[in-house]
């Protein structure tokens, strides 16, 4: 749980990532964002 909270905190500090999450319209969009930032 703590690891997930740390990852969420890091994500929310990244303005570009937050903007992309707000614009995501589908599961595929979310998967693409995950791949871009975390793989």
TrEMBL record:
InterPro entries: PTrfase/Anion_transptr (IPR016152), PTS_EIIA_type-2_dom (IPR002178)
Domain PTS EIIA type-2: 1-37
Protein name listed in UniProt: PTS EIIA type-2 domain-containing protein
């Amino acid at each position: 749980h703590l690891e997930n909270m740390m990852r969420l905190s890091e994500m929310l500090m990244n303005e570009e990532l937050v903007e992309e999450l707000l614009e995501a319209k589908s599961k595929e969009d979310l998967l693409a964002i995950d791949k871009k930032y975390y793989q």
